[in-house]
Design a protein that fits this description.
mainly beta; OB fold (Dihydrolipoamide Acetyltransferase, E2P); five-stranded mixed β-barrel; globular; single chain; 90 residues
Length: 90
């Protein structure tokens, strides 16, 4: 699981059936203090996130598929499971 920043959308007219009906978003990984890293994922949105949102991403394939109630061998690897309002680090 990681904190990310949504920086774009992915539009695909032809895609695997497990992605039908789901919005796909580009998410860059952030450090815990909010700095961007060079890593990113294409994530299935389950919480109506949008470009500019800070989000919580579940990037463990099997767990991600369980969130979407998919078969164990589905094509989903990462899902957005929360929109973060703020992060407090002491």
């Amino acid at each position: 699981m990681y904190i990310g920043h949504v920086f774009g959308t992915v539009v695909a007219t032809i895609k695997h059936e497990t992605f039908r009906g789901h919005k796909l978003l580009l998410v860059e990984r952030l450090t815990p203090d909010g700095r961007p890293t060079p890593k990113y994922d294409i994530c299935v949105d389950t919480v109506q996130a949008g470009v500019g949102d800070t989000v919580l991403v579940l990037d463990e394939g099997n767990s991600a598929r369980q969130v979407l109630n998919q078969a164990p061998h589905g094509a989903v690897r990462a899902v957005i499971v929360g929109i973060i309002d703020r992060i407090d680090i002491e």
